[in-house]
Amino acid sequence: MFVHDIFSSGNADYRDRSPPPARLSTTNNTFDTHRERRKKMMSWFAMAALVSSMAAWTAAYNLPFHSVSSRHQYHGAGGDVVSYAHPRLSNRKSWRCRARPSLRSKGDAPETVVSSSTHDDDACVADDSIVTGVTLKMAFDSSPLWGVADLSESKSERFTSPESLDMVHRLRRESSAVLVGRGTVERDDCSLTVRRVRLGDGQNQPVRVVLDPSLSLIGGDYTILKDGLPTIIYHLNTPGKKEKSNATTMSDNITLIALDGDADGGFSLSPSDIVKDLAARGLQHVMVEGGPATARAFLEESVVDRAILVRAPFDFEIPVPAEIDKALLRKAGLKMIGTTDMGGDSVEYWTRNGMPWVTTEFHRWP
């Protein structure tokens, strides 16, 4: 209902009233003029108050003046999207997300729990400390299977909130290397670059690291092989691999590193050896971003120092189980120190027993 409708409906009896008493008959024209002026002034005051209250509400909730993109966008590894989220969205709690049940059981209460998280993108994170070691980041649905993808979908879709996606790009910015397995590159054609947040002055993109034991990616049309940014590909030191790499024209940004198989003589790369080799190359903080097989390998070798796990507020129709759970995390020597809400997602923070978080308030990093 418009403002003039409000006033006209409330004064219908006054408008239809019979002429005023005779004692006012000599000034009827003047009376009507004043009455119309008063009605117009009241309408204008009401309209001004409405506009003022709407402006105050918009400012209080820090709302942008355009619609927010749907969650269902192509995301790639860890949520790569083509569109750039409005920067103001990262500093407010999402007001569009529905309530969700707690993901914690009675025996899993963390030491610290916060209800919401805000982050200043311009702030210097990590309390001026140098972050080292391995940080695992994974995203799941809320089902007991810890689903990482939905087989009912025809293509990989981003399923976490824009705020969680901003957090992923902040973590990339805080990392010297971002590591994924071969399957993630094949499935998502990811770039693993920092795009949703600003890099520091003079700061370079993190080095991309791909585990490709058989060098099956070589010769493929993947972004990570042709965008000119530094990339390291680890593969097994087996006959035929060197000949395959030599037969393929490689960009100057691609470095191939051959490693022996695991200690049991198998055909998989050792996460411990990879972390040691990266550290020797000056890459002290490694972000492991997927997929689930790569994450499990790092957890099983107990080389993960901290983990950030994002749980979206819904279940996949046909979930692809990650085969990761809290029992595996504890076996890897990790302990949950708290959770926070991030745009409707529940984010869990895990750290190696006895190791402090990067910041005093864990939800402030990254």
List the helices and strands and how they pair.
Layout: H1 3-10, H2 12-15, H3 28-60, E1 112-113, E2 133-140, E3 147-150, H4 162-173, E4 177-181, H5 182-188, E5 207-211, H6 223-226, E6 231-236, H7 241-247, E7 254-259, H8 271-280, E8 285-290, H9 292-300, E9 306-311, E10 319-321, H10 326-331, E11 334-342, E12 345-352
Parallel strand pairs: 1-11, 2-8, 2-9, 4-5, 4-8, 5-6, 6-7
Antiparallel strand pairs: 3-10, 9-12, 11-12
Can you walk me through this structure?
The protein has a ten-stranded mixed β-sheet, with helices on both faces. It has a two-stranded antiparallel sheet with strand order 3-10. It is elongated. Helix 5 (182-188) links the parallel strand 4 and strand 5 (207-211). The two termini are 47 Å apart. The chain is of the alpha/beta class. It contains ten helices and twelve strands.
